[in-house]
Design a protein that fits this description.
Keywords: Antioxidant, Disulfide bond, Oxidoreductase, Peroxidase, Redox-active center. InterPro entries: AhpC/TSA, Peroxiredoxin_AhpC-typ, Peroxiredoxin_BCP/PrxQ, Thioredoxin-like_sf, Thioredoxin_domain. It catalyses: a hydroperoxide + [thioredoxin]-dithiol = an alcohol + [thioredoxin]-disulfide + H2O. By secondary structure, this protein is α/β, with parallel strands linked by helices. The protein has a single domain, classed as Glutaredoxin (3-Layer(aba) Sandwich), CATH 3.40.30.10. It contains five helices and nine strands, in the order E-E-E-H-H-E-H-E-H-E-E-E-E-H. The strands form three sheets. The chain has a five-stranded mixed β-sheet with strand order 5-4-3-8-9. The protein has a two-stranded antiparallel ribbon with strand order 1-2. A hairpin with a 6-residue loop joins strand 1 and strand 2. The longest helix is centred in the C-terminal third of the chain and has 14 residues. The chain is globular and about 45 Å long.
Length: about 160
């Protein structure tokens, strides 16, 4: 079952850089989960760099950031090290986390159709309830919008 705004997000755990990620372990903190298509591609690198550069501001707003794609842990480790990401990346090779958040969509590239990750971001409150979502994200300005929402939610 896909998630819905103002509803609790089902607990999940998944392999991630730095060890397994467990949603329940993050209760008490807000969580930004951002889904992106592929490590080391221009848009995904720019998006990750935006979250990296705003990491301290998110931390000040009691918010943890985690990125998700279908890439392997090895690819994630290299991407994280190369870009200096201070947050973890989840490897969702079986698409279970993508399925929970309903981010796998039919896409087209050069006339060919394929299933891929629709760039999306989710803001979960400190009680594990989904408070905001951004789907079909365009990278420019996106991190600022998510940060503003996280700061406002933290004050609520």
């Amino acid at each position: 079952m896909a998630i819905a705004i103002d509803s609790p997000v089902a607990d999940f755990s998944a392999p991630a850089t730095g060890g397994d990620f467990d949603l329940a372990a993050h209760k008490g903190k807000q969580l930004v989960i951002y889904f992106y298509p592929k490590d080391n591609t221009p848009g995904c690198t720019t998006q990750g760099q935006g979250f990296r550069d705003a990491h301290e501001a998110f931390a000040a707003a009691n918010t943890v950031i985690v990125g998700v794609s279908r890439d392997s842990l090895k690819t994630h480790e290299n991407f994280k090290a190369k870009q200096g990401f201070p947050f973890e990346l989840i490897s969702d090779k079986d698409e279970s986390v993508c399925g929970l958040f309903d981010v796998i969509k039919l896409k087209k590239l050069y006339g060919k159709e394929y299933l891929g990750i629709d760039r999306s971001t989710f803001l979960i409150d400190k009680h594990g309830v989904l408070r905001q979502e951004w789907r079909g994200v365009k990278v420019p300005g996106h991190v600022d919008a998510v940060l503003a929402a996280a700061q406002a939610l933290n004050k609520a």
